[in-house]
Every structure is written in structure tokens, then in C-alpha cells.
Amino acid sequence: MNLPNGRVRNWFEKMCECHKLSLLPLSSEVMIRAGELPKHHKDPADRIIIASALESNLVVVTGDRRFPEYGVTTIC
Question: From 62's CA, which of 29, 51, 56, 68 has a CA 20 to 30 Å away?
Fold first, then answer.
């Protein structure tokens, strides 16, 4: 999706509001936990998502079959 400059923020805020999404902070606890996770998954962004879910006891919507190896509950 290509949006003109300055409109990405507006689109993002509307999507969060429309879908009742909230953002999790990228805390030092999450970053440390991501770094300490077993190396089942090499993608650092996915490891941050996994650590965030573990820290906040959340379910992750993903088709990635490696996530449950970390004890994360997933919905596909």
C-alpha cells in the first residue's frame, strides 16, 4: 500500500482505532527476553513478538509453526 507522505500516521491511527488495537511498549524486559530465547527462530522481529507475547501473556495470530516451540499460544 502506497500512501502519500504524511498520511501513513493517519492511516495507522485509524486502523488501530477501527480494530481496537493497542501498542505494547518495547521495554528492556522484552528485549532481554528476546535475546535469551532459545534459537528455534532466527528472525529478530519474530523473537521480539514472541517475547512480547510471553511477557504480557498474550495470544499471537500467526501461521508460523515455530512460535509454539516457545510456549506461545497461537491462532492461525
Answer: 29
pLDDT (tens digit, 9 = 90+) per residue, 11-65?
Answer: 899 999 999 988 888 999 999 999 999 988 889 999 999 999 999 999 999 999 9
| Cα 34 from Cα 54, distance rounded (Å) | 10
Rounded CA gap, 37 and 8, in Å? Answer: 33
The Cα 1–Cα 20 span in angstroms is: 21
Among all chains, which residue has been given the C-alpha cell 535475546? Answer: 35
CA distances from 58 to 5, 9, 13, 15 (A): 33, 25, 22, 20
Dihedral of CA 4/5/10/12: which sign?
positive
Going by the DSSP 8-state scheme, the letter that residue 43 receives in this structure is -
The residue to which cell 501473556 is assigned: 57
